[in-house]
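Troubleshooting log. The previous structure file for this entry was overwritten by mistake, so regenerating from the original sequence record. Sequence copied from the archived sheet and checked twice against the printout by T.R.
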Amino acid sequence: MRILLINTALDHCVTALSEGGRIARGLETPGRRAYANLLFRQIRELFGADTVAAEDIDGIICVNGPGSFTGLRVGLAAAKGLALAHDLRIVPVNTLLNCCFTMHDADVRERTELLPPTWYVPLLDARNERLYGAVYAMPGADQLHWHIEREPLVGAAADFLNYLEKRLTDGAVSTVCGRPNCRPERLVIGWAGAMPEYFPAAVDLTARFGLEVVMYSGIYDFAETLVEMAVSALSGMFPTTVDEANVLKIPEQLELAAVDAENLLPLYVSPAQAERFLAKPPSLPTS
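Regenerated output below.
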């Protein structure tokens, strides 16, 4: 299965082409200017380098937010246009989950032993010492699925760290399959984009939380774990419809869903961003 990947949610324009569940080629250009022209130039370069035509694509993965308001509109509009023109389905993935999977893949590559129970905490700077954040629990030895410990939210960085400390010290976390998850032995924190200066260093968080903390920053690219899950969604192994009434609600067990072009919606954690989107729906880029 051949999949086109699009991420314009951050201050880099990132595209990739996957084949057989692996990322075959990727392009990344920093800067938020001329998103529309840059995105389509990258897509043409991807197709040209591998002598692939849009007709050869089996599906699209598109990062749908949170992130740059302009970038999201361009990326989603491009994904919709390609999907409508070539009868493709789209797998939307939120910015934080894409960051989570990229951290996990890096984690696996860098460690020679099996990973202990780990929470992945992807973050995105929301300015003024506020952040977007989420918490995902990796599958354990006796589990098949990733699980969501905390759905994406936006708030003060200090409040988010207090929330993490409470969850880690009260000894109880979410219940999965009728039983509680075990307390993680380590946290892997990563920034989608640049890490802001106000955020504590890994050594300080290790002392505060009482467990190993690993920190990544500058995460923009895609992970093969994401591609593998998207292949399952596009193949019909995962649910292929989304309940529009609950589009912002993420289930406890993490699964991706493939949608038609008309059902591809941005994930706006901030109410102000959602109001702007509803006031003026995105259109296809003209250049």
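The chain has two domains: 2-94+222-279, 96-219. Archived copy saved in two places this time.
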